[in-house]
From TrEMBL:
Residues 262-376 form the DNA primase large subunit C-terminal domain. Regulatory subunit of DNA primase, an RNA polymerase that catalyzes the synthesis of short RNA molecules used as primers for DNA polymerase during DNA replication. Stabilizes and modulates the activity of the small subunit, increasing the rate of DNA synthesis, and conferring RNA synthesis capability. The DNA polymerase activity may enable DNA primase to also catalyze primer extension after primer synthesis. May also play a role in DNA repair. One of its GO terms (molecular function) is 4 iron, 4 sulfur cluster binding. Its cofactor is [4Fe-4S] cluster. Signal peptide: none annotated. The keyword Transcription regulation does not apply. This is DNA primase large subunit PriL. Belongs to the eukaryotic-type primase large subunit family. Heterodimer of a small subunit (PriS) and a large subunit (PriL). The keyword DNA-binding does not apply. GO terms for biological process: DNA replication, synthesis of primer.
Amino acid sequence: MDALDAKYPFFASAREAVAAAAVSLPELVAADAPAVERARERVERALLEGTVASERGAFPGESAYDAQAELLSYPIARILVSLLDSDPAIEKYAAAEAATAMERVRRDLDADDELRSVSSATVTLDDLLAEFDLADAVRPDATTSAGVGRGVAGGGAAGTGSAGRDPSHYRIDVGPYLRLTSPDWGDSWRLVNRALADGAVRVSRDELLVALEAAVEARVAEGLPFELAADEGIGEALESRVADLRRLLSERTYAEPPDVIDRDLFPPCMTNLIEKAERDTKLSSAESFALMAFLVGIGMTPDEVVAFCADTSLDAEGIRYQTEYLTDDRGTQYPPPTCETLANYGICHNEDDHMQVAADPLSYYEKRVAAADDVTDWRAGREADDATEA
Ligand code: SF4
């Protein structure tokens, strides 16, 4: 199995490599092979962080998993997502596979020619367009790439210099453009706001990559969820991993958050996580998800969470991704995990046996706010600081 298939496991060649390999997914799952743990990580990170890259090493080359485990983790991850059987989970998983793939594509495209000539594990734009049957539908834009008018496939080593290989704009036929893009992405994507000539729409290179990300996402989502053959026993073998993922994404809903932010009343689990991040220690995926879900659960906006966590190891971009995901308005928001789940992840230490008081950190906080004689709202302090600065 080659490294390129492991890196882009949704490619047709990767599917063929899996089919041709003498491996049985039910046997791999039954044996709890490394690909199974990698698949669980793939789905967990997709749902919580919007990436499927391994926490134990970034691609290419440095992954702690070998190419075979990396490649086989993809079909197993699809099985896990099918077993989760949740539309929001499928959406998030497909989006994360696509985002991770396009990050790798961008790195491949930026790699210099020397690296590309020694590594077979990089793709070109031509490869990607061919993979999605877009080779004839996308052309470098002749108006911005002097001397380039013969299609992307004409670029590369035999192209017309750097502008030929990597022009800044392309023309994409209107059919594929409409299929791969959405007016929901903003006014600039609407056809009426686009330069349209000879049945083709002008797009920048970055926009073309965004459209290709949509193509990857659609391919990953295709066929999900699927039914598993009952006699193969995969569902039973993966039961505990699916249950963990479900618990982490507990679907309890809350009527109204307390909408007051008093750190002194936070439950110990959340205080511990904040203090850990303030010591500049990196939080694990589960830890940062639990903290973000709690802060969003008490009514903080993404901007407020960024400000609240300004002096911690959490970076603003990651906070924004997670909090926006948690607060989106399509019914896919996930409330904070329960105390039991947090205990399973080693986040809860159940100080003074207060698990008796509430089943989850948000309920515990609500009770403490309701019982407090005096509440100091962080928002009020922030507004006062802003007023002083002004
Ligand atoms: S019992 Fe619940 S609220 Fe308390 S520390 Fe554990 S997870 Fe947090």
